[in-house]
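Hi support team,

I submitted a single chain yesterday and got back a structure, but I'm not sure I'm reading the C-alpha cell output correctly. Could someone confirm the output below corresponds to the sequence I sent? I've pasted both exactly as they appear in my results page.

Thanks,
R.
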Amino acid sequence: MRTTMQANVFHGINDIRGDTVPKPSAGPGEALLRITATTICGTDLHIVRGEYPVKPGLIIGHEPVGVIEELGAGVALMERSRP
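Hi R., thanks for writing in. Yes, this is the structure output for that exact sequence:
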C-alpha cells in the first residue's frame, strides 16, 4: 500500500505545485478516495489569486471523481438500486 500521494499544494499567491505528500487515512465518518479525475472551481481560482486567504501548505481542489479506497469507522456503502 502506498504511503504518499500527489496533491495540488498552495505555496503562495500564484504558486501552486504538484507535490508528493503523506497519504491520509480515513478517520471516523470519513472515506478516502483515490482520485481518477478532477477539475478546478471558482474557489480554487480565488485561493490561487490571493482573494481568499489560506495558509501555505493547503491542499486545494475539491471537485474530484474517484474510487473509494478506504472507509473510516461508522461509514457503510449503500447498495445502488437498479431498475
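A quick pointer for reading it: The beta strands are 4-12, 15-22, 31-38, 64-71. Let us know if anything else looks off.

Best,
Support desk
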